[in-house]
Amino acid sequence: MIVEQHALWGDEPTAEHPATYTAYLAEPVPARADEPRPAVVICGGGSFTAISAHEQEPVAFEFLNRGFQAFVLDYVTSSTGNVSFPNPEADLAKMVATVRANAKAWHVDPDKVTVVGFSAGGFICASLAAQWKAGPFAALTGERPERLRPDAAVLAYPLLDMRVIRDEQTRDPRIDLRVPKTGGKTGRDLLNDYIAMVIGREATDERMAEVCPTSHVTRDMPPTFVWGAADDRTCPICQVYDLAQAMAREGVVHELHVFDQGGHGLSVANVNTRCDNEDRAQAVRAWVDLAFDFLDRRGLV
């Protein structure tokens, strides 16, 4: 295996474009040296403030073992730069185009590029999947829209709608208690500040709807596999149902799995990602095989 690390937008990361990526490349098997492999671009979660390591390399290895070339994207977060929409999404669009531009060197089939996103990374992947054609990404990357289109998307316990996050997290009246250590802001104030950071403007219903991937689903969205857990308190499962309904209305090929338990943040639910959550990991582990079967039926494996 070859492991390479690169800046995404140039020779070196910059303050404007700090994104990097790691390529995990399997060397060609002699008997099939001329057969390119499908590719996957992986976006871990981390609340847009960092990226969770357990949703990066372990996922890459899972896909490598299934015959993919894997690319882990370290998109911009609040700890590295301007995380406001559409900057992380533009990083993903650039990464998809980069994989296609280097398809021959990396032994990749440019017509088999899947994006996989967890939690906040799911928001990024869903945004590109829904808006690759009409969104701002072609202008931001200087690429033709079709170069940015994922051939499929896999969304794991995704964040999708900031309105749902706001409503679910402000049900408890105690959120309005003052918090002296933060300059007297209430929990509601802090949540609104966080949402404004992610969406790039004041956290109004109109702006949250504008950046919500579900608002932009059309028949041009690629095949999409989505899974989550009914007891997820971080990214409430109702968001997933809203996305599935939108895809159904538009005729988007999709598959949805909701597990009765599992919570949030389980990644590929194997020995490399679980710690004290073995029961929950076992409950959702089936998602990996289900997702690969979905991609196989689409001819993307």
Please count the helical segments.
12
Give the end-to-end Cα distance, rounded to a whole number of Å: 19 Å
Classify the helix fraction into a percent range.
25-40%
What oligomeric state best describes the polypeptide chains here? Answer: single chain
Low-pLDDT sequence parts: none
Number of strands: 8
Output the radius of gyration.
19 Å
Mind describing the biggest β-sheet?
8 strands, mixed
Helical/strand content category: alpha/beta
Shape: globular
Which range does the strand content fall in? 15-25%
Mean pLDDT level: 93
Provide the spatial order of strands within the biggest beta sheet: 1-2-4-3-5-6-7-8
Order of helices and strands: EEEHEHHEHHHEHHHEHEHH
Characterise the protein shown here:
The chain is of the alpha/beta class and 301 residues long. The protein has helices at residues 57-64, 87-101, 103-106, 120-131, 137-141, 145-148, 162-169, 187-199, 205-211, 238-250, 278-284, 286-297; strands at 2-7, 20-25, 37-43, 69-74, 108-118, 152-156, 224-229, 254-259. Strands 1-2-4-3-5-6-7-8 form an eight-stranded mixed β-sheet, sandwiched between helices. α2 packs across α4. The radius of gyration is 19 Å and the shape is globular. The two termini are 19 Å apart. The mean pLDDT is 93.
